[in-house]
Amino acid sequence: ELDNLSDAPFSGDEENGGSEERKTEINGNWIPATSITEAKINARAKRRLRKNSSRDSGRGDSVSDNGETLKTGVVVPTSPKGKVLDRRSRSGKGRGLPKKGGAGGKGVWGTPGQVYDLEEVDIKDPNYDDDQENCVYETVVLPLDERAFEKTLTPIIQEYFEHGDTNEVSEMLKDLNLGEMKYSLPVLAVSLALEGKASHREMTSKLLSDLCGTVVSKTDVEKSFDRLLKDLPELVLDSPKAPQV
Q1: Which of 26, 51, 101, 149 is most buried, most CB within 10 Å of its CB?
Q2: Considering the domain boundaries, does residue 43 fall inside one?
Q3: Residue range 52-109, pLDDT digits in tens
Q4: Cα–Cα dist 9/46, whole Å
Q5: First to last CA, the chain
Q6: Who's near 224: CB < 8 A, 6+ residues apart?
Q7: 221 located within any domain
Q8: Distances (CA, A) of 238 to 157, 199, 232
Q9: Would you say 238 and 195 are in contact if contact means Cβ atoms under 8 Å apart?
Q10: Residue 183 CB neighbours (<10 A)
Q11: Closest CA to 203 of 243, 163, 153
Q12: Does any domain span residue 206?
């Protein structure tokens, strides 16, 4: 029957004779060699297509189940990834709101208006210390050294020459730990006033008068003026009228 259905332009005998030479027996059935070759070629093409599709997965365009091309980054609604990113309830009963009213999860403070009770110290805690309830914590400010002293106080005194408020200077100095450098405060103020105007010298005199007894003591002021008299030859280089002033 296969020989009779052939479209080859040979007679019956010629077609039978040629077909016997080109047929191969597989599992007891005679199959033409040309069909076997075509099947191998098709199988190789399919394997190559699968390899290329696996390499290009995740980049480029993909093909959906309906045969339509989808651009990269577009998630098919029926894909598992789309279900994971969906905040709606999978059972279909939820309203899509966050769990616990937004009070659950890591790093969350709680619902608005929630008040927390004071945490009681467990006496049975192995790290419990009787003195920890009576501890007083204070902010420790390190004393200024000579370089940091001049760098910190120079802007404060220069700003005082502009606003003239001694109370503001006093409050700013109280936040600093002058340490043993207190006597250097009048030295720095007078040195800056010598380089300025006459009004700056008057303001410096008022500043030292207001700071004496609160920020610096009388002993510190005496020590500072002794230091100024010793450094007078160096002050003359910058302010020639320093001795008269």
Answers
A1: 149
A2: no
A3: 766 655 555 554 444 455 555 455 555 555 555 666 656 666 666 666 666 766 777 7
A4: 33
A5: 134
A6: 183, 184, 185, 186, 187, 190, 216
A7: yes
A8: 18, 18, 10
A9: yes
A10: 19
A11: 163
A12: yes
Q: Which residues contact 160 (CB under 8 A, 6 or more apart)?
A: 166, 168, 169, 203, 207
pLDDT value, residue 12: 45
> Secondary structure of the chain: what % helix, strand, coil (to 5)?
50, 5, 40
Cα–Cα distance, 235 to 192 (Å, whole number) = 10
Residue 167 maps to which CATH number? 1.25.40.180
Q: Give the pLDDT of residue 112.
A: 73
Token pair listed for 192: 């800056």
Place of tokens 């920020």: 215
Q: Where are the alpha helices (DSSP H) in 98-245?
A: 146-163, 166-174, 184-194, 198-211, 218-230, 232-238
Residue 105: phi, psi to the nearest 5? 110, 170
Q: What is the pLDDT of residues 93-129, one digit of tens each?
A: 666 666 666 676 677 777 777 777 777 777 788 877 7
**Does residue 160 lie within any of the structural domains?**
yes
Reported as a pLDDT band with limits 50, 70 and 90, residue 20 is: very low
Q: How many domains does the chain have?
A: 1
Task: Show the domain range for 176.
Answer: 144-236
Specify the amino acid at residue 123.
I
* Beta-strand relationship, 29-32 and 23-26: antiparallel
Local structure of 32: helix, strand or coil: strand
